[in-house]
Amino acid sequence: MDIELIESYLKKIRSIQSCKIIINEDEDIEEIYMVSDLRRNPKQILRDIEAILRSEFNISIDYKKVSIAQIKNDSMQYDTSQRLKFKSIEYNEEGSNIEVKVVLEKAGQTYESSMSGINTSSNLNRILGNAVLKAVELFCEVEDVFVFEDARKVSLSNIDVMVVSISSHYKGREQIYTGTAKIGNDLKVALARATMDSINRNLVQLI
Counting C-beta atoms within 10 Å of the first and last residue's C-beta, which end of the chain has fewer, N or C? Predict the structure, then answer.
């Protein structure tokens, strides 16, 4: 097994900065250590590793043998236009119930989520907030991580601002995050944008 060749292939994966493969006495892969920047989440990198090992070297590996350390590269310049962004909301009322469809976007790729419930003002906030979070989970390829907790309209220097709080539970760690958005013509759009604000500033750390 040509370990140096395999390492050179894995180093070509986008966001990877370095790679080290450890083999055992039988020359089977025991561990793979990768260092990446923060532009991609570890699940995406892991899929690339598995695909390259399978397609180029006919090697299958247990994902538990792969360790990915992510570090901030201060020399990188991030394009803020490529952040996960709020795109649109759609409402569909049926009697006392309402369905909310949220669409998020990043780099031309859209992520959609729909949720429904009883149509009261406070419950609509929760439905909308959780629909945003479910779309975020779709982007992150995780399930049941985020919960929309609360939303408040506040006034600061005569400017109306939406403040939201969300919680996350991931890998045994529970966190509370907050986000804000200036309220324009649509209170619900501000709520969605505030929810995105709470997520975008912490997304890399969460996944």
Answer: N
